[in-house]
Amino acid sequence: MTSPSDRAPIYLMTARVAFKKRKEAHERVKWIISVFTSPSDIMRYDTKTMTRLKSELYGKSSKSDRQVIIRDIVSKKFISNSQLTLDEHKRQNNI
Q: Residue 92: helix, strand or coil by DSSP?
């Protein structure tokens, strides 16, 4: 059992997101809810968020290679605490 101080905080963030569509680079500001705060950790460990961003930006009829890059975090707001620690969230992705 994890103590409340060990639990990972959940944040609502706005992030600058870049993607390519029809050989042209686009950039948007999108919302993200995650326990990870750095763009590289979100892209590596948070598959649910990345899948949502890909489907929002490309749509379901896109047949090309869908790459989404999180450039930086614009704002961050604390929402709540997770039931798991940050290490347990990272381990979930490896399974």
A: helix
